[in-house]
Structure formats: structure tokens, C-alpha cells
Design a protein that fits this description.
Helix content is 65%, strand content 0%. By secondary structure, it is an all-alpha fold. The longest helix has 22 residues, at 67-88.
């Protein structure tokens, strides 16, 4: 079937993403994310905002990653959570696409 990039390319609108965004979809990164999540307790998965530094150290050791990778994943999760809340509000998908277009530099052929 191919890697994650070939699956993403089949989704509507994803083929129009700039190459730098397409290259961010890496199978190795997904394996790392899975290892981090599997190293968390169910309570940490449910309430990621409450993870303290000592817990991040334990998760990093258990997943074979760094505390920085854990911080990055938690930050991305928070950003995605905010984006999903915006999308659930009226006209959210179009607003999100416009926001992405503005962040990517305006005229990228996206929308």
C-alpha cells in the first residue's frame, strides 16, 4: 500500500500541500510518537497537561526518546486540540484552511 505519505496523498486537498509539509509525514516519526504514548500511564494519556518533569523523564527513558521530544509532542497535541475545537464551530474547516494558507506564505496554490 505504501507509506504514510502515499496514503495522505490520496486524501482530498493533501496533494496540494507544499513539499515541505508533505515531507513532515514520516513513518519513523509515527513510531516514535507511538513509543512515547505507550510509555505513558492511562492517567497521563487522559490528562497530558498534568505531566510533570519527573514523569517526562520516565516517559523519555521508557520510549527511548528525549524530554524535548515529549515536550514537542505535548505542544503539538495542544495545538491540534485547539484546531479541532475551532473546526467544530461554525465554518471551522474553511477558516482552518485559510489560516494554513496564510501561515504557509499566502499564494501556495492551496485553495
Amino acid at each position: 500500500m505504501g507509506g504514510i505519505t502515499s496514503i495522505m496523498a490520496k486524501l482530498p486537498g493533501m496533494g496540494q500541500l507544499p513539499p515541505n509539509m508533505q515531507n513532515q509525514m514520516d513513518g519513523k516519526k509515527l513510531v516514535e510518537i507511538e513509543a512515547i504514548i505507550n510509555s505513558m500511564t492511562p492517567k497521563e494519556r487522559r490528562f497530558p497537561d498534568n505531566i510533570r518533569h519527573s514523569q517526562k523523564n520516565r516517559i523519555a527513558k521508557g520510549s527511548g526518546t528525549s524530554v524535548q521530544a515529549i515536550n514537542q509532542l505535548l505542544k503539538q497535541f495542544l495545538q491540534m486540540q485547539k484546531m479541532m475545537k475551532k473546526m467544530s464551530q461554525g465554518g471551522g474547516m474553511m477558516k482552518m484552511m485559510r489560516m494554513m494558507q496564510n501561515r504557509l506564505g499566502g499564494n501556495s496554490g492551496f485553495m
